[in-house]
Write a structure and sequence with these properties.
By secondary structure, the chain is α+β, with helices and mostly antiparallel strands. It folds into 2 domains: about 5-75, OB fold (Dihydrolipoamide Acetyltransferase, E2P); about 85-125. The protein is built from 2 helices and 5 strands, in the order βββββαα. It has a 5-stranded mixed beta barrel with strand order 1-2-3-5-4. The termini are far apart.
Length: about 130
Amino acid sequence: MRTKKGIITSAKMTGTVTVTVNRHAVHPKYRKRYRISKKYLVDTKDFKDLHEGDEVLIGECKPISKNKYFKVIEVIKQAARVSELSEEEGLNTAMNRLGREELKEVEEAKEAEEAKEAKSSKKKEEDSPDKE
């Protein structure tokens, strides 16, 4: 059974991922090594938690469909997972250079200032005589 090592480049299909396998070849005349990459459609029957960037070992199997004739044997290295919440927090931190707690403090301070302004504007309206 042939096995190849590659990196998942697309995990948008159900039960299938696209794996890019790189290999090196030598030019016949110039003797320079260059990289050749090929994409394979791979079955993910036993593996549920596969994402882009994961390094996997794939093995040849009987044809599952027209273009799918490899399956995932092993996950060698998982790419870093980032949840949506921590990604948003990272964006806020990068944009404002503030953490989650600091952002809450700033928002609370703004709300307190707005409340003070509203109270002071009401007092001014009550104190001033009507010019009618």
